[in-house]
Amino acid sequence: MAGVTFEMKLSKPKLGLNERLRVDFTMNKDGDNFNPPDFAGFKVLMGPSQSISSSWVNGVRSYSKSYSYTLAPTAKGKLRINQATIIIGGKIYKSLPEEIEVTAAVDKPSDQMTADDIADENLHLVAEVSKSNPYMNEAITVVYKLYVSPSISVSNYQPLDNPKYNNFWSQDIKVTSLNAKNGTFKGKPYRYVILKRVVLYPQKSGKLEIEPLSLDVTVDVPTNKRDFFGGRVYAQTNKTVSAGNRNINVKALPLENQPADFKGAVGDFNFSVTTSKPSLNASESLQAVVEVTGKGNLKLFKLPELNLPSSLEVYEPEFTEGVRTTLGGMQGKINNSYTIVPSFKGKYPLPSIPFSFFNPKTETYTTLKSSEIIINVLEGPNSAASNTLNSSSTNKQSVIAANRQFNFIKLNANLSPIGSAYFFRSTLFYSLLLIPLLFIPVAILFRKKREEIASDVMGNKAKKANRLAKRYLSKAKKELGNKESFYVALEKALHNYLKAKLKIETSEFSKDKISELLLQKNVDEATINGFIALLKNCEAARYSQFSNVQMQQDYEKASEVISLIDKQV
Fold it and tell me: What is the pTM of this model?
C-alpha cells in the first residue's frame, strides 16, 4: 500500500541503568494484529497503551495511531530492541530494529529531572568560526547556530546580548529565513537553525576575543503526563543560552620581503590603469582609472596614486566602490577616476605604477605593475618646453596664454524684450478673486457633516469599541490555526485589554476577582461570563485538542465581548 509508514521511535538513544525508556510504534494507517518485539534486556513497566489522532486540514485527512511502552533496562551495555510487525491493508509491515546504550546508574534519573534540567541537556547555542588563526586583515566567518534536540521544541527566542567585535571590521550577513535543518551535535542527531552570520576582518595581531551571543529561549519540554486524548503534556520553561567566548589568534603580516609600496591589501587581486581615450586636443578632458578587482579586504586599504606630468591639469580623483560581502568575504572592485585636462600639444607619459598585496593562501607578497600609457595631445598651443616626453619633471612649466584661447565664449547675445501684460483687471485677476467665494458653501456642508457625526454618541462608541477589539486581538488573528500560539496571544489580549481599560494588573487577580471588578463597573453578567469562559478556554487549550472552528468562534466571541465591555464601562 503506497504511503504507509510503520516505525519505532525511542525517547532517547542512551540512558542510565536507573532510568526509563519510552518506545512508540507509530503508523499512519490503521492496522491489525500488532506483534511487539520481546524487549530482551528490558522489563516492561507499562504498556501497551494505544492512542489515535485524526484530523482534517484543508480537506486532507491526517491519521496517526501509536502503541506505547515504558521500559526499564535490566543490564548495562548495548541492548537491541528487535522489530515489531503489523498487518495494514492485508500486508505485513515491519519496523527497523534499534540499539540502546545502557550506562551505569545516573545521579538524577530522567523521571526526576525538571524541565530546566531537560532543557539544559537538549539546547545548545554554538558559534562556529571558519578559521581560528587567520592573518591580519584576512576574512573569517562566524555562524551562530541554535541546536535543539528532537525531544524538545522551541516556541520563541529573544536576543539578550549581541556581541561587539572589538579590533575587527565586521559585516553582518542577513539571515532571510529561519529554516530548521537536520544535523548532529556531539555525535547525536539534532535540529539546528542559523540565527546570525557575520564576516570579520581582524585589524590587530595577537590574541583577540569574540564576545558571546546570548539568547532567552522559551522551551517546551515533554512530561510523563498525558491529556484526555492521550497526547503528551508539555511543560514550558525559559532558558538563557550563550555561545561562549571564542579566542582568535591573529598572525601579523610578515615583514620579510614586504614591498615598500605595500598599503595593507590582503587577498587575491588584479590591478590595472586605463584611460578613456588614447588621444585628444588641448583643453579637452579624459579619465584615467586606477582599479583593483578581486577578493579580499577591498574596503580597508588605499589605492596607489598616479604620478602625472606637472604640465597636465589633474582634478581630485572620484572614488567608486562596487563591493559585496558574502560568507567568503569581500569581493568586487574599487577604483579612482582622475579627470585630466592637457593645456598644450604634445605627448605625455603616464608612468607605470606598482600595487602590492599579501595573499594569505600562498603566504607570499605579490606586486603587480600597470603598463606605461602615452597621452597624445593632437592640437593646441605649444609649450615652452621643447620635449614634452620629458615633461614628467617636477619643475612646473610656464603656461603661455594664446590670443584666441577663450574664443569659444560667446559674448554677444541675441536678446529680445518680453511682451508686457497687466495683471490688474485681467481674467486671471478676477478668477483668483472669485475662487475663495466658491469654497464657502463647501465649508458649511463639511461642518454640518462633522456635527452630525459628533452627535451620534452611540455610533461613535461602537466604532471606538470595534477598533479597540481589533487592536488587542490583531496578534491572535494572525495565529489562527496554530492552537498554542493562538490561545497564548488571545489570553494576553484579554488581560492587556483589562489592564488598559480598568488600570489594573490582571495577572495578580483570579477569575473571581476579575468578575467582581467588572460587576463594580456595571458590566452585565452575561458579558462577564463570556469573558471568563474565554479565559478558561485559553487555559484548557494547553492540555486539550481544539479545532480551527473552535478557535474561530473564540476569536469572534472575544471581539464581541471586548466591544460590549467597552460600551458598558
Answer: 0.51
